[in-house]
Design goal:
Blueprint lengths: L47 E3 L6 E4 H6 L9 E3 L6 H11 L21
Antiparallel strand pairs: 1-2, 2-3
Length: about 120
């Protein structure tokens, strides 16, 4: 199969934006399951523990202490995409903990010591 040829009177409809070109530079793809170590650790990491059965879920340590010995279980918060917005809102709204005062609720080993 031969490619169509154009006479001097005909114009090609191929523009630079639609023409396929081979690039000498290649992009590196980010690995979806790669473990990323962040130096700017969120304050939520002190107050939530990762679910042992599902790594995408986290539970509030404060509620876990309060519900110990009862039939209640703490609500699971999603960690999908490393998004901590819902956990930050929980700490702020339910426990009055913010990034400015979270150290007031930790002991010398950075463990939760205040039970609300």
């Amino acid at each position: 199969m031969s490619s169509p040829s154009f006479s001097d009177n005909e114009e090609s409809n191929v523009t630079p934006s639609t023409a396929s070109t081979s690039s000498t530079t290649s992009r590196k793809k980010r690995k979806a399951n790669a473990k990323v170590v962040h130096s700017n650790k969120s304050h939520t990491s002190f107050f939530f523990s990762i679910d042992k059965d599902n790594a995408e879920l986290a539970h509030c340590k404060i509620y876990m202490c309060n519900f110990a010995g009862s039939w209640q279980t703490p609500y699971p918060y999603t960690r999908k995409g490393s998004n901590t917005s819902n956990m930050i809102a929980h700490l702020r709204d339910k426990h009055n903990i913010t990034k400015d005062n979270y150290t007031d609720h930790l002991d010398e080993h950075n463990e939760v010591y205040t039970i609300f």
